[in-house]
Design goal:
Number of strands: 7
Helix content: 25-40%
CATH topology: Rossmann fold
Strand content: 25-35%
Largest sheet: 4 strands, mixed
Shape: elongated
Number of domains: 1
CATH architecture: 3-Layer(aba) Sandwich
Radius of gyration: 20 Å
CATH superfamily: ABC-type transport auxiliary lipoprotein component
CATH class: Alpha Beta
Strand order of the largest sheet: 2-5-6-7
Order of helices and strands: HEEEEHEEEHH
Structural class: alpha/beta
Distance between the termini: 78 Å
């Protein structure tokens, strides 16, 4: 009886430690790339340049406070990963990415946030993209996490999902695939 009670207290303590007061610094998984079946297909031959517009918030910032877990991220790391994902998608479509190309995408991280759900956290990522001289458009991606061990993956996947959403947009595709 004492052993069962001690085990119950230990398990309860571990659970409380896992969900209360924990701060998690998100590490973007730089080697995470789109799976082949998710890869947007582009019908273009002209090169493209990608320009990053820096976020107003610099350094580590708290972007999520759900399920008593505070998460911190560097917006610059998010932007770098978004650009890396875009370059990967262009390369896998045999499109050169080069500075000064006539076709230009300007990208920035507009907002990182999370929503508390019944059984986990939904990480949200909004990216702003300007295609040439067109108006800026916002694209959203999300990924759910049911464990604190999956936060890094989930935030990284949310960025990638926003990038894929951008490539699937008809106006962006028209700009990229259009002749100049």
């Amino acid at each position: 009886m004492i052993v069962k009670r001690g085990l119950a207290i230990l398990i309860f303590g571990i659970l409380i430690f896992e969900i209360t007061g924990c701060a998690h610094h998100i590490q973007i998984q730089k080697d995470f790339v789109a799976e082949a079946q998710l890869l947007p297909e582009l019908n273009m031959t002209s090169p493209v340049s990608i320009v990053v517009k820096a976020h107003d918030l610099t350094g580590e910032v708290e972007f999520c406070n759900a399920l008593m877990a505070k998460c911190w991220v560097n917006y610059s790391d998010l932007a770098d990963y978004a650009v890396q994902s875009m370059v990967d998608i262009f390369n896998r479509n045999h499109v050169r990415v080069m500075d000064g190309a006539e076709k230009k995408l300007t990208v920035s991280i507009a907002r990182a946030s999370c929503d508390e759900e019944v059984n986990g956290i939904k990480f949200n990522m909004d990216i702003d993209v300007t295609a040439g001289e067109e108006p800026t458009r916002t694209f959203s991606g999300y990924q759910r996490s049911w464990s604190a061990h999956g936060f890094n993956f989930s935030v990284t996947a949310a960025v990638l999902n926003a990038v894929i959403e951008m490539f699937e947009d008809k106006e962006i595709k028209h700009y990229l695939e259009g002749r100049q």
